[in-house]
Predict the 3D structure of the following.
Amino acid sequence: MSEIKIVLPDIKDYHILEVYRSHGGYENAKKAFSMSSDDVIDIVKKSGLRGRGGAAFATGLKWSFMPKTTDKPKYLCINGDESEPGSFKDRQIFEFNPHQMIEGILITCYAIGVKTAYIYIRGEYYKWIKLVQKALQDAYDAGLVGEKMKETYGTDFACEIYVHSGAGAYICGEESSLMNSIEGKRGYPRVKPPFPAQNGLWGCPTTINNVETLTNVPAIIKNGWEWFAGIGAPKHPGTILFGVSGHVNKPGVYELPSGTLLTDIIYKYAGGVPGDKKIKAVIPGGSSMPPLRGDKLEGVTMDADGLRAAGSSIGTGGIIVMDEDTDLVAVLLRITKFYHHESCGQCTPCREGTGWMEKILKRMNKGEASKADIDLLYRVATNIEGNTICALGEAAAWPVRFTLERFRDEFEKAMKDEVEMPVKNQVHSMRHTKIPIAPIHH
Ligand SMILES: Cc1cc2nc3c(=O)[nH]c(=O)nc-3n(C[C@H](O)[C@H](O)[C@H](O)COP(=O)(O)O)c2cc1C
Ligand code: SF4
C-alpha cells in the first residue's frame, strides 16, 4: 500500500498556521512568485494535474485560457459547493489542511493574473465555513494574503481572498450557476459559450477550480512537475481523495494514488462489506455517475481512463457501495428525487423529465408499474441527456439509463405484468400500470 499523501498529509495540527509554516508552508508561494507566471502555468501543465471537481479537465490548460491582456479585472472561484450525494472530500481539506488550499489559491491567482478570489462553500457546511474563515484570517494577520503580502514575499503581486457561502442549492456547484450566485443572482446555469475565461463573473475573465485541485498546486511547485507526473496513473496523475460510503465496514475519505484498484479501495482500505455479503453495485464517482455491476469490478482502476473503460466516470471520486440485498428500485427513486428537487427548472427536458422519472419510479417502488414502464423510464432519461443547458441533465439521466441497462433483470423481476390494462383502455403509456380502474357504468 502506497503511503503518499499530498492534500491530506498525516501531520498533527497541520490546519494550524504555525504548524503548516513549520513544514515549509507558504514557502511554495514565495518560490512561485520568483518565477514568471507563464512558467508556473507550464509546470502545472506538465505535471498533468486534472480537475478533481468532476470532469477531470486539465488544470494548466484551463489556466492558459485566461486572457493575458485585458482591461477588465480577472477572477478565480474555488468550488467547494460539494453537494453531490456521495461526495464529502473537500470538507476534509477545509478542516485539516486549509492553508495548503489558501497557498494553492495564491499561486493560481499569480499564475493567471487574478487579484480577487472567492472560495464558494456549500451553505450546509456551516462548521467548515467558520474553519476556513479562521484559517484565512490567520493568513491575513500574518501578512500572507492581501496587500501586506507584497512586503512579506518581497513581490509586486497581491490578492484578496473572500469566503462566499452557498444557500443550499446543489445547482450552484455548476460553475456558471456558482458565478451567478456570487453575483447575488438566482443560481441559474448560463448558456455556454461564452465560457468563463472570456465572460465569467460580472462579465470578466474567470477561472473556476475545485478545492482539491488547487490544494495540489503548492506540492507541485515544491517537488516539481516530474515528481507529480510520476505518481499514479500516467494520464491522470497524483493522488485522489476517495470518499467511500454505503455498505463498507470503514467508510471515510482515503487519499490514494490515482489508478488504485477499486476492489483494493473497497476491501483493503474500507474494510470490505459488512457480513461479507456480495456487492450488487458500485457508483464510483458520486451519485450522478453510471453504476458498475458488482460482478464487473475486477481490474477496474480509479482514474479517468480506467473508469471510462469500465463504462463509468471518475466524477468526484465518491464511491458508493451497495451490497447484494440492496433494492435498486428504491435507490434509483432516491437519487432521482434528489435531481428532480435540485433541477433549476430552466430547461423543459430537465424540469419535466426529472419529475416524470420520479413519478414512474415511485410507481415502480410501490409495485404499481408494469414492464412497459421500464422502457418508458428509459425513453424519458435518454431524452433529457444532451438536451439541456447544463450537465445536471446528464447527472439525472445517467443513473437511470445505466441502472436500467445494467440491472434490467432486477427491474423486470420487480414489475408485475399480469395486471396490465388491455391496449384499448390505454390512454397514454404513462398510465400503463396496474392501478385498478373503476368500471364505467352507462
Ligand atoms: C450540477 C453540477 C454540480 C456541480 N457541483 C460541483 C461541486 O460541488 N464542486 C465542484 O468542484 N465542481 C462541481 N461541478 C463541476 C463544475 O461545474 C466545474 O467543472 C468544476 O468546479 C471545475 O473545477 P476543476 O476543473 O478543478 O475540476 C458541478 C457540475 C454540475 C453540472
Ligand atoms: S439542465 Fe436542469 S439544472 Fe441545468 S439549467 Fe437546465 S433545468 Fe437547470
User: Anything to note?
Assistant: The chain has a mean pLDDT of 94. The chain is about 40% helix and 10% strand. The pocket of iron/sulfur cluster (ligand 2) is lined by residues 171, 189, 343-347, 350-351, 388-390, 392-393 (CB under 6 Å).
